[in-house]
Design a protein that fits this description.
Layout: E1 8-11, H1 13-16, H2 33-44, E2 48-51, E3 55-57, E4 64-70, H3 77-89, E5 93-98, E6 102-104, H4 108-116, E7 128-129, E8 141-142, E9 144-145, E10 148-153, H5 159-176, E11 180-183, H6 191-204, E12 209-212, H7 219-225, E13 230-231, H8 234-245, H9 249-260, E14 274-276, H10 285-288, H11 295-304, E15 308-312, H12 327-330, H13 341-354, H14 357-361, E16 365-369, E17 373-379, E18 384-390, E19 396-398, E20 406-409, E21 415-417, E22 422-424, E23 428-434
Parallel strand pairs: 1-2, 1-15, 2-5, 5-11, 11-12, 12-13, 14-15
Antiparallel strand pairs: 3-4, 6-10, 7-8, 9-10, 16-17, 17-18, 18-23, 19-22, 20-21, 20-23
């Protein structure tokens, strides 16, 4: 399926477009800014884009007011359709954030309940009780997401709620021609609702992609139980930066082998999880790494480990922001894209990833592993690739049985000879397409 060979770019539209935090109701076609960035994305090798929330919301996008309208601060439905059409013309697939666990207090059905209380036909759309009161003195208690009462939890066991959501998804596919959904807090979503959603989208559009946001757990079992194609690989996200910061490549390799190794007991061998160095919810990778010389090596790992690599806008040139500074800092507005050596490196990784069967579908085997170096193999039978990383400030010479004499190095395009050992330069990574 298309997503198995995709390189994703994530944009958080409200921040990217410089929209005001509070929804002021003033329409402005800010989303058209994405069109100006298409050449940058193409140069970077991007062939899929994941938009964080674009639908009408109270503030940050995850407190939806209306699933059928593009946020006023971003523009009109027609504006967003133009963006999707242009992305599609450039061969870029479009995945939207589906926030179905909860809505904002400004959601039209919740406002009806606030006004009519018991008499509202939508009172069963939420988990509420008229025997209590809310923090906002609504005259009834309701369940918020993880104790956050700005996020009103939907009753996904209510057929009318499911029908409403599927009706809107139907509209997004018919009108905008989207290619998939990233499901916010998928670990909270009702499994029967997820089954209905998968059944509906499978019947609506072939190869429609469903990606679930999860943090921890048994990913392989969760993929099956949640009826999804992919999950966010937070286990390896933590292992990536932690391994480079503590000079301990054993940590990330242990996580990768536990998930994707050759043994029958591995958690999700053959699955395509979403790989990332950072996103809209966490400190940017350039701010969390102790040594910025390791930045290109981090992206080599993200692009060559089993999974679907995703780059968060701005991080391709090393933009910085810390979670402690607040979410708006992580979701910055950049006037225009920048380009530097890191961007060049990521562009080369994109081409290597998209054009390699082994990197897209191969298994995983560790060849060399020390605290500061690792060499691993991706093998899909008809193609074999080895990935070598040296995070040390000194050169490192590895001796191992390569199974052939030479390889093409995919980042530089040079020929690598395995005779006499393979020397890795300080803070370097190489991707070897083996002779056989």
């Amino acid at each position: 399926m298309w997503f198995e060979e995709a390189v994703f770019y994530q944009i958080y539209p409200l921040g990217f477009c410089g929209a005001p935090f509070e929804n002021d109701g003033v329409p402005e076609s800010r989303i058209l800014k994405v069109l100006d960035w298409i050449p940058h994305m193409k140069k970077l090798g991007i062939n899929a884009i994941y938009f964080s929330p674009v639908f009408e919301s109270d503030t940050h996008g995850y407190n939806t007011r209306d699933y059928g309208l593009i946020d006023t601060r971003l523009g009109t439905n027609e504006d967003f359709k133009k963006v999707v059409d242009e992305l599609h013309k450039e061969g870029i697939k479009v995945v939207l954030d589906g926030v179905f666990n909860h809505v904002g207090r400004g959601f039209w059905a919740f406002k009806d309940v606030q006004e009519k209380k018991w008499d509202s036909p939508y009172k069963d759309w939420f988990h509420l009780s008229f025997d209590g009161n809310s923090n906002y003195n609504d005259g009834f208690w309701y369940e918020g997401w993880e104790g956050n009462y700005d996020l009103v939890k939907l009753n996904l066991r209510n057929p009318a709620v499911i029908d409403h959501i599927l009706d809107k998804v139907n509209y997004w596919i018919d009108y905008f021609d989207i290619d998939g959904l990233r499901l916010d807090v998928a670990y909270c979503l009702d499994r029967e609702f997820l089954r209905r959603l998968r059944e509906f989208t499978d019947g609506k559009k072939s190869e429609f992609f469903l990606l679930g946001e999860v943090l921890h757990g048994e990913y392989g079992r969760m993929l099956n139980e949640m009826h999804l194609h992919s999950l966010t690989n937070y286990q390896c996200y933590k292992g990536i930066y932690s391994s480079f910061n503590s000079s301990n490549m054993f940590e990330i390799m242990h996580s990768l082998m536990r998930l994707f190794g050759p043994e029958d007991w591995t958690v999700c061998r053959g699955a395509h999880l979403l790989s990332f160095a950072d996103n809209h919810d966490v400190t940017r990778i350039a701010s969390i790494l102790n040594d910025e010389r390791c930045l290109p090596l981090v992206y080599t790992l993200v692009f060559t480990m089993p999974g679907i690599p995703c780059v968060y806008y701005g991080s391709e040139w090393g933009a910085k922001a810390r979670k402690e500074e607040g979410d708006p800092a992580l979701r910055a507005c950049f006037e225009k894209p920048e380009w530097n050596g890191l961007s060049d490196h990521i562009a080369r990784l994109s081409e290597a990833k998209k054009n390699s069967r082994a990197l897209n579908y191969g298994g995983l085997r560790i060849v060399v592993l020390t605290n500061k170096q690792c060499i691993f193999e991706r093998n899909c039978g008809d193609e074999r690739v080895m990935v070598a990383i040296n995070m040390d400030s000194n050169p490192y010479t590895a001796h191992f049985d390569a199974g052939c004499g030479q390889a093409k190095e995919l980042i530089s395009g040079t020929i690598h000879d395995f005779g006499g050992g393979s020397t890795l330069q300080p803070y370097s990574s190489e991707i070897w397409l083996m002779e056989r």
